[in-house]
Amino acid sequence: MAAGLILQFQGVGEQEYDAVNSQLTFDPRTGAGDWPAGLQSHCAGASGDGWIVTEIWDSKEAQAAFMAASLGPALSGMPAPSVVWFDIVASQHRH
Q: SS3 for 44?
């Protein structure tokens, strides 16, 4: 079963989001590059007091591998986000 992830960053905005993404091997805005193994979906945007990222992963283990290899180092110096995991029971993507 796929795993959903919500990361909520307080006091973080688009500038910080772009700075983190500049250190990764893919561009979430365009879809270009080498996406991490197991990442099915990525959405991000401003909230009332920060930034929210939602993702769908094949598994928590796939996200943990990406966190250890790439995302964790890119987030260095950022405030720790609140983290919510949930089991995906339905997912649709309309374009």
A: strand
